[in-house]
Write a structure and sequence with these properties.
The complex is a heterodimer of chains A (255) and B (314). Chain A is an alpha/beta fold and 255 residues long. Chain A has 2 domains: 164 residues, Rossmann fold (3-Layer(aba) Sandwich); 68 residues, no CATH class. In chain A, 33% of the residues lie in helices and 22% in strands. Chain A is built from 8 helices and 10 strands. The longest helix of chain A has 18 residues. Chain B folds into 2 domains: 194 residues, no CATH class; 87 residues, no CATH class. Chain B contains 10 helices and 4 strands, in the order ααβαβαβαβααααα. The chains are: A alpha/beta (255), B alpha+beta (314). At the A-B interface, helix 2, helix 3, helix 4 and helix 6 of A face helix 7 of B. The complex binds adenosine-5'-triphosphate (ATP) and magnesium ion. Adenosine-5'-triphosphate binds next to helix 1 of chain A.
Chain lengths: 255, 314
């Protein structure tokens, strides 16, 4: 990577409607800055998943402009989408595991699609499954796994290829608070040590407090509130608005 | 709690993933799904039989034409034995002088009687029952209608002083309807093969579309994880290839078994005409190419179908 864009994602007046229904997202404008940690909150039906779908390129907006990695996503031909999707890691709200593949093969999928050497696949996937506590369930297919187990497989799959942006839709909805914290630590580790931009949609207000220098995006009936402007303007260099020094230190230490 | 593992850097080149691993993405490879392999097997068997039939008919027609087209028979119908002998000699002389004729053979009376015996009884005396004299004539090449007419008029001129009459029978003339029937049958075989090919393509199209619909969720996931259309297409190609190859092999075996049975039936007829319809090495090569062609047709159809389906997705 030669130069890192100062903004990794930029939404401008984005609107989304499904079919001829009313807009589920209206005038959504925000910027994601590299290496930042975001929470996306809002009532059920507020449009969190819809916004994330635009972000992980599963959906095109009805209006507005979306730029990612410095490229206009609206005019991007579909043949170029894989290139951008491979820079993203996604935890889908309903997991979307491939039903006839084992936990191992599901987690390995992004690596294999990227043509990663098989020895490396075996090693990375093995480590990751061990860390999410699923080594013993490696050969199980999703159907035979609990909701929490499936969720952990989904998370492992999202982070396995070391994405530049991690997009997680309710990633801790099916696990106990202890596991939720552990998974959050995985996201933070990626954020701190690799500089991955993380965006986590969640209902869980307790979670928000666990990442001190995170930014909160609040959706209300399809509209994004940004009272401080933190979602539009870049954070102060090497620091985050309202962030303590500890965050900067750990980032610096990792580099 | 141990430190979370931070995944290693992954090459982001948009190459195709390793074939073996990526293609396990669809349903388990060992299982043949649905009736498609069997439909393909039936269709390939039909093509094998139709093609073998068509090729065999072609050989039959070619051989028969080669045997018969350059020969004619001349008949001399005259009740009186002496007159008949005289006329036959005159006719033979006239024929021998003709440039197109390479050999003339008067069929001996005994041979004629042997031929007629089954129909007319043992003691046929040519005095009692007048039988025509026959002359087998071989031509240097197959004669046109005009040339046959020339031959006829040469005979007429030769026999006129003797008050006799000869008739030229070109075997190719009376065999023409047979040839026409044979070539009609060959066209029928071709038409059958075309129709069956269309049916095969349709079956594959339906199957590929169904497979795509059944695996749509998987395809979407693969897309969202950064899979390319080429990778998705290849996954489907693999399963089409597997099913079509299975069907083609079974179809070929069934078709060959049917041909062998038919062959046994015809062989017991012990007819010269049938044995000349046997298949040559090149014919067998054509038949062996049918399953290969079927698999290729299935692959191309599958690829086009999946390509279309993919274009409707983001
Ligand atoms: N595919 C779709 N077709 C039509 N309407 C949809 C579709 N997906 C979502 N919606 C509607 O869009 C609105 C926002 O849905 P969305 O899933 O984005 O909400 P959410 O904030 O993720 O909710 P939750 O917290 O329950 O997951 C809802 O009113 C929903 O009914
Ligand atoms: Mg949602």
């Amino acid at each position: 990577m030669t130069e890192r864009p100062s903004e990794i994602v930029k939404f401008d007046n984005v609107g989304l409607r499904y079919g001829t229904d009313a807009e589920v997202l209206s005038d959504v404008s925000f910027t994601l800055f590299p290496g930042s940690f975001y929470f996306l909150t809002g009532a059920s039906g507020a449009g969190k998943t819809s916004l994330l779908k635009l972000l992980y390129l599963a959906q095109r907006p009805s209006r507005g402009s979306i730029r990612m990695f410095g490229k206009d996503m609206i005019t991007l031909p579909r043949g170029r989408l894989p290139d951008f999707r491979r820079r993203l890691g996604v935890v889908f709200q309903n997991f979307r595991l491939v039903q006839h593949l084992s936990a191992f093969d599901n987690v390995a999928l992004p690596l294999r699609l990227a043509g990663t050497d098989e020895a490396k696949v075996q090693r990375s996937v093995g480590d990751m499954l061990e860390w999410v506590g699923l080594s013993h369930r490696m050969h199980a297919i999703p159907e035979t796994m609990s909701g929490g187990e499936q969720q952990r497989v989904a998370i492992a799959r999202a982070v396995i290829a070391r994405p530049q942006v991690l997009i997680a839709d309710e990633p801790t909805g099916n696990v106990d608070p202890e596991m939720a914290l552990k998974l959050l630590r995985l996201f933070e580790a990626l954020n701190h040590r690799v500089g991955t931009t993380v965006i986590v949609a969640t209902h869980d207000v307790h979670l928000l407090k666990k990442v001190p220098d995170s930014l909160i995006m609040r959706l209300n009936k399809g509209r994004l509130s940004d009272p401080t402007g933190a979602l539009r303007y870049p954070p102060a260099p090497k620091s985050k608005p309202a962030a303590t020094g500890s965050r900067t230190d750990s980032l610096g230490a990792a580099k | 709690m141990s430190a979370p593992p931070v995944p290693e850097e992954v090459g982001q080149e948009l190459g195709l993933g390793p074939v073996k691993e990526v293609t396990t993405i669809l349903a388990p490879p060992a299982r043949l799904s649905g009736p498609i392999p069997w439909v393909i097997a039936i269709l390939i068997a039909l093509v094998v039989i139709a093609a073998a039939g068509g090729l065999s008919l072609r050989n039959l027609a070619d051989n028969a034409r080669a045997d018969l087209a350059d020969a004619v028979t001349v008949q001399i119908i005259e009740a009186g034995l002496d007159d008949r002998t005289a006329q036959t000699e005159a006719a033979a002389t006239a024929l021998g002088a003709h440039p197109l004729v390479t050999s003339v053979r008067v069929v001996p009376e005994t041979e004629l009687q042997a031929l007629l015996e089954p129909w007319l009884g043992v003691s046929v005396a040519s005095d009692n029952v007048p039988i025509p004299a026959l002359i087998d004539v071989e031509l240097s090449r197959s004669a046109s209608t005009d040339e046959l007419a020339q031959l006829q008029s040469a005979l007429d001129t030769a026999l006129e002083p003797l008050g006799g009459e000869a008739r030229v029978d070109a075997q190719s003339q009376w065999l023409r309807p047979v040839y026409d029937a044979l070539s009609a049958l060959q066209y029928l075989a071709l038409a059958l093969i075309t129709l069956v090919s269309i049916a095969t393509a349709s079956a594959v199209w339906l199957a590929a579309r169904n497979a795509f619909i059944n695996h749509r969720e998987t395809v979407e996931i693969v897309h969202l994880l950064g899979g390319t259309d080429a990778q998705v297409t290849r996954i489907f190609e693999r399963s089409v290839l597997r099913e079509a190859a299975f069907g083609a092999v079974i179809g070929l075996l069934v078709g060959l078994a049917a041909l062998w049975l038919l062959g046994q039936q015809f062989a017991s007829l012990d007819s010269g005409m049938v044995s000349s319809g046997g298949l040559a090495l090149t014919d067998w090569l054509i038949i062996a190419a049918i399953p290969v062609g079927g698999v290729m047709l299935a692959l191309i159809t599958g690829r086009i179908t999946i390509g279309y389906a993919l274009r409707s997705m983001l």
